[in-house]
Amino acid sequence: MDPVAKVDVGASSMFGTVAVDAQDLAFSRGGAEVTLNDLKSNGAVIGNQANNLTTGSNWVGEGSFAGASGFSTVLQNSGNNVLIQNATIINLQVQ
To answer: Are the C-beta atoms of 27 and 3 separated by less than 8 Å?
Structure first.
């Protein structure tokens, strides 16, 4: 039997008001539980010198992310002898 044929996809049942039986759900299930977290932040700033230096300004202006989609991030540095180690781990679970 076609598992899709049993499910009414009209507007009244669009958001799960019609149950799918366990056998059909098992047939449609996919994916795997995979976790990949490999964060390596072990940098060091040692023995550096900075003399008579000028740093500038930095900013994120209005509209900088206009039209952006997804996950946006900004790294800014206006200093000297700075070690920036950026890492982002996003755990996403779809149920």
So the answer is: yes
In whole angstroms, how far apart are CA 28 and each of 14, 17, 31, 70, 94? 17, 18, 10, 27, 15
Best CA proximity match to 21, nearest among 44, 4, 39, 45? 4
- pTM of the predicted structure, to 2 decimals: 0.44
Alpha-carbon gap, residue 56 to 58, rounded angstroms = 7
Helix, coil or strand: residue 88: coil
Length of the chain (residues): 95
Question: In the structure encoding, which two tokens stand for residue 11, read together?
Answer: 């507007």
Token couple for 56: 């500038």
> pLDDT digits over 59-94, tens only?
899 999 999 998 888 888 888 888 888 888 887 776
Q: 83: closest CA among 50, 56, 57, 46?
A: 46
